[in-house]
Amino acid sequence: MTQEAVYHGARNMGMLVINHLVSMGDEGRAFGSDGKDYQLTKRTLIQTWQPLGENEQHLAARSPIRRYGEEHRIEQTYLEGPDAWQTSGKSWHWQPVTANTVYENKDPET
């Protein structure tokens, strides 16, 4: 389960300055109003492993054994990527896309 997201402040501030300089050519648009203004910023999602709930016990046989509270860190970058829900087929979002709750299998092919 996702516990927190750590945004890399100094690095992201530098990227925002660069993106602002690039976007100054877009007349009539306020900075921050488009996803490209946040392009290449980074964050780290921190997920902690938790025991399966009562209604999730059917997953126990396929689940790996992990210590309760063990952390999994996922580095994400804000980019434009495929999005089947958008008419254009693309949108700006954190990649790789990660759900708030992730179930892990012992054998990734099952």
Explain what this protein looks like in three dimensions.
With 110 residues, the chain is of the alpha+beta class. The protein has one domain. 14% of the residues lie in helices and 28% in strands. The protein contains 1 helix and 4 strands, in the order βαβββ. It has one helix at 9-23, and strands spanning 2-7, 42-48, 71-82, 90-95. It has a 4-stranded antiparallel beta sheet. The two termini are 21 Å apart.
| Number of helical elements | 1
How many structural units, i.e. domains? 1
Q: For the report, how would you describe the main beta sheet?
A: 4 strands, antiparallel
What is the number of strand segments? 4
What is the H/E order?
A: EHEEE
Strand proportion? 25-35%
Give Rg in angstroms: 18 Å
Could you name the ranges where pLDDT drops below 50 across 5 or more consecutive residues?
A: none
Structural class: alpha+beta
N→C terminal distance? 21 Å
Shape: elongated
The spatial strand order of the largest sheet comes to: 1-2-3-4
Mean pLDDT: 85
Bin the helical content: 10-25%
